[in-house]
Amino acid sequence: MGYDVPNIEDLYACLSCGYCNSVCPTYGQVGWESRTPRGVIYYLKQLSQKNVFDTILRRGVKLDSQSAERLRECVFMCTSCGMCEEVCHVDIEFIEFWEDIKEWVIKTVGKTESQKKMYDRIKEFKNPFGEPAETRGAWLPEDIKLSETPEVIFFGGCTESYRMQKLAQASVKIMDKAGVELNILGEKEWCCGSPLLRLGQGDIVKSEFMAHNIKMVEETGAKTVVTACAGCFNTIKNDYPKVLGKLDIEVLHLSEYTKRLLDSGALKVNNPISQKVTYHDPCHLGRHAKVFEAPRDVINSLGAELVEMRRHGAEACCCGSGAGVKAAYKDMALDIGVGRVEEAVETGAELIISPCPFCVLNLNQAAEKAGLKIKTVDLVQIALGAL
Ligand code: SF4
Ligand code: SF4
Description:
By secondary structure, the chain is of the alpha/beta class.
């Protein structure tokens, strides 16, 4: 009689301790148990085990249109930050859990208009903005020499290709300074698929996008893919092999590659930074992909004084904008961001550095909302100025 809810063993593993609630940024803003990992688990468990006694006792364990809408909101308010996975003491793998549950909710209760729109745009245009494929590589600075036999393909990603081109430009300039033989995929590059995977709509990503992007890289002969977007990096590095098997190419975040170039002496710091800075770990680079040290090492090499926020590394707080939350719940995303910016201000830092375009945008907008003067810059921008 119950619903065929996925991850059933996780639902029964939960001990209802509530550790996850205390660290959930969504709960921190909304304050409702129903929006927490424990609350959603409890509800799904009730749904999955609905039986004749629920009917006799008139317990409302059913997915009518009203409760379906509520469940949708509970699930899609999650930023996929992964903090619940970090603290859960029965080791529920929440990063995958939320993706499975989101997929199930979409199959069971349908997509919202905006989810459908994003899916359709990515399917048709290969980017979530509905921009033409032909202009995807238009950000490339004219003075960057591309190699016909590249060692590295720089994967720009949708946001840096169409909305934050300065970050893509800074990335290739850094590699160019080091004399890296590089190229880009241009219009052959498709969305990495992260926006759909995180929102439970990953079917076309798994069946088409992953194989396409890897094939395009392989055709260039490059053995390394470098991206400056935390979302693209985590998706290509960690999600692609789950579907395609082990990749024959190395996948690096630009912070890792910059560290390698600095360590080898290919890059030199000519204009050291004298500022006191703090570092915000993007969830997709830090907790999801376990890259904590490389960006910090780069910041230290640039000469900056790095001071850590109270919550950093594996325990860093989300900026608030992940998994479509920025688009669907803008105020909440900004309010989570305000908390993070306030934490940065407490350190006495003059600047926040983060290697993710989404974190940079949300933290800057949050600072503006709260009237805080501190700015957030992408690691590539600050690195380019110092090299
Ligand atoms: S992933 Fe983050 S936002 Fe989502 S439920 Fe877990 S702690 Fe909350
Ligand atoms: S931390 Fe894990 S066991 Fe505890 S309530 Fe959350 S999901 Fe359940």
